[in-house]
Amino acid sequence: MSGTTTAAVGLRRRAAGAGANRWVVLLVLCVSLLLVAVDATVLHVAVPAVTEDLRPGAIELLWIVDTYPLVCAALLILFGTLGDRVGRRRILLFGYALFGVASALAAFAPDAQVLIAARALLGVGGAMIMPATLSILRQVFPDRRERALAIGIWSAVAAVGAAVGPLLGGFLLEHFWWGSVFLVNIPLMLVSLPVGRLLLPESTGDGKGPWDVVGALMAAAGLFGVVLGVKRLGGGEDVTGPFTVLPLLVGAVLLALFVRRQRRRAFPLVELRMFARPAFSTSVGCIVLAMLALVGLELIAAQYLQLVLGLSPLQTGLRLLPLTVAAMAAGLFGARMLRRFGPRRMVASGFCLTAGAVVLLTGMGREDDAALMLTGFVLLGFGLETTLFGAYESMLSEAPPEQAGGAAAIGETSYQLGAGIGIALLGSVMNAAYAPGLSSVPGVPASASAAAGHSLGEAYAVAGRLGGDAGAALRSAARDCFVHGLHVTLLVSAGLLLLGAVMALRLPRVMHCEPEGGKAEVPAPRDVAGSRVSV
Fold first, then answer.
1. Is CATH 1.20.1250.20 what the domain over 276-510 is classified as, yes or no?
2. Which end of the chain has fewer CB atoms surrounding its CB within 10 Å, N or C?
3. Full-model pTM
4. At what angle do helices 112-140 and 404-434 cross, to 10 degrees?
């Protein structure tokens, strides 16, 4: 081999991170994901302490909680495609740095406005980190079989992060002040920055044509409007209110203009032709439907456990823990299931298993049935994670390597949109089934019944103010109506999940594991011993 050829091969190996074991790279990426997943939920338990210390108004408190996921969802496509252009590792490292700075700013925020700004910066950092981890994973694991295992570990870590957030936040709040839930990010980022710079591979897309700045800003503004409108609907805001309708309309128009712009450009920001591939578009739809069911059900289940059964927040978390453990198991065994059953049967079976679990949970009533809930939550967690794993793996494998960042951003955006729509849709179904039963409770004034129809928590407050037989009757009726609404919501969710199972029939029957050949941008990395990994 000539010296020139040897040098060229060496450069390609360094660009692909060949000097580092790909499983070590996966470990670094999983730490990144864990931080972002934890930060999405860690603040929930700190809200009372933040409220007592900073005294935010109702609107400010809403923005403190919602700014991070809102900004993160809006900027995923922008930074995912920018990483394809300027380097995915570069964007990831910038995300690390920004996440650390924003965490320090949030920890020592003197007032609500500074905390909101810090949460927005955390959202920017999260939007840099999330698609970069998946797109780098796509490059480091060109063998689909190994990539499936890596995605399974990646998704299991995401499930752990979502569960660890509230537990970690509760532990820190017992021993320190509320800012510690943000401060814990800083040492991890200080380690991740040099380790990531040393071990993570740099990769880009084909680099053809200029980066579409206008298109990126249109996508960000459009997603911001749509996600904001959906979140307001999920929060019970008036559907016809200007602050709900206007963001939705403006966001939808901007996204439509973005799609039109991408179709006309010679070098589009997002290659919309990916959606012409049945496996890609179907996978995106499956992610939306799976998240739609999961987030809405988790929210309603938490209310049921605390308000109907009277469990404490810690007991509620422990009851929901089997769902997370089952999701972790499905992620770790996902690669083996995908090879054996193929994407179509795996995703469709995951949807069907989840629908069965949801129907089983309709057996929950006014009395505690721990065995029923344990069985239902285990099946729910395993089925949903099986679905999400198969959908993510199929979506990422269908995307061209040069569009890995954009594809990962589309997947994460679908995840966020599905979660927001799920809260709005299932919350509306719950309210529609819950409120009518309280319209005529014997001995309860109409005004009190109307107030109690807003939520079960408010019904308990009204019942406490009424007292006596009227209060007891209202409390009992509200509990019964909530259980009825829970059953209706579960059945609607089961229908949506079965719709997802039908949609999954468009996925490929078998998992194609042939080498990527010329499509792969980089050769397979070497393992610790230096031998070539077969693909």
1. yes
2. N
3. 0.72
4. 130
